[in-house]
Amino acid sequence: MVNNNNINNYNQLNIIENEKKQIHLLLHETIENGKCFDENQLKDENQQKELNKGYCRIFSILCRILNELQSIGEKSDSIVDLLLPTILKRIRFSSPPLKATLVSILCLLLEECSQEFTSTNQFHSIINTILEIGFLNNKNFTNYLIRNSSCLIGLSAQLCNNNYRDNFKPYLSKSIDLLINCLPKNGNNNNNNNNNNNNNNNNNNNDNGSINFGIDINQKEYNGAKDNIISALGKIILYQNQIIFSELPILINTFLISIPIIEDFPELKSVQNTIIYLLLNHPQFVFTNYYYTNNNQDQILSNIFKTFALSSINDYELLQSDIIKIQKVFQQHQIQQIPNLEEEKHHSLILSMFGQIFNNNNNNNNNNI
């Protein structure tokens, strides 16, 4: 008896093979067309839009192929084998906006790869290339390149979890340094005043020698980059913690004073998962500020609660089982009141989650007046 499922899968694979050829040709043509623009022309918005039409078509075909592969239980490793040599060959010599777009294509591919792919030379070529060119400063396109490169670093850290951690180990230290160096100095967030921003922008180097890109941290474009940096640091903490245990205190503190996510809300779930992991497994680093004084303790707690509130608003609610566990951690560390959350809606959401401890404390305080 003929198995219809096998026939359907065979036919679908033939269709996918033809689409692979189409996308490879399109990628080559798009990159070749980009050569006719010099750096000054690429600053022109119309020229960028014209060139990006090709990349939009690539994205469209890629998404379709990846969905088709997923429907028949296949990974995208074979697509990477097809496209990677062309992308890596061109990315080093492309202008910054094209670099950013090519990195985003790599992210799309890597998102669907198997863990086994991280043991290949192709994976190591991707990471080495991103660490070399993904965080370069360019006054016009830094935000987009850093945003996509940070996303790729986070995806790689996540993909190399459990038995595949050693595949990411050679890149951990440099990844962490590059990500942290792209954050506002001392963890300044978007609530800082303009004077602080200007002070940051006037310094070309941090006290520890890290690069300051001179980015106005209130710019909308930078918010997206910062969100992906935060998310990538969180994924390193979550998936690579056994390898970087000695670095965890400073890394955790940097992560906690940099949250919450401002714009890239799909990353909220990942960031919230990291916070849950830290509260349940490393509360000593959350509540004692191992390398810092207690001056930023309220800020850290406020950032944690803001993330919980924003996650709830964006349909990433905490599980009741996690709320119960987190409440016990708060009680053990004598967290008795909600720090300033600025928005009443956020305050109400936190009360609805953790009202058992905070309402009781408020009632006790009222009875003592």
What does this structure look like?
- With 369 residues, the chain is an all-alpha fold.
- 67% of the residues lie in helices and 0% in strands.
- It is built from 16 helices and no strands.
- The protein has helices at 4-34, 39-42, 45-71, 77-91, 96-110, 121-133, 142-159, 172-181, 194-202, 220-239, 248-258, 268-281, 283-287, 297-313, 320-332, 344-368.
- Helix 5 (96-110) packs parallel to helix 7 (142-159) and helix 10 packs antiparallel against helix 11.
- The longest helix has 31 residues, at 4-34.
- Residues 35-39, 186-218 and 363-369 have low confidence and may be disordered.
Biggest β-sheet description:
none
**Helicity range:** 55-70%
Task: Identify low-pLDDT runs.
Answer: 35-39, 186-218, 363-369
Helix-strand category: mainly alpha
Q: How would you briefly describe this protein structure?
A:
With 369 residues, the chain is mostly helical. The protein has 16 helices and no strands.
Quick tags:
369 residues; mainly alpha; disordered C terminus
Task: List strands and helices in order, with pairings.
Elements: H1 4-34, H2 39-42, H3 45-71, H4 77-91, H5 96-110, H6 121-133, H7 142-159, H8 172-181, H9 194-202, H10 220-239, H11 248-258, H12 268-281, H13 283-287, H14 297-313, H15 320-332, H16 344-368
Helix pairs in contact: 1-3, 1-4, 3-5, 4-5, 4-6, 5-7, 7-10, 8-10, 10-11, 10-12, 11-14, 12-14, 14-16, 15-16
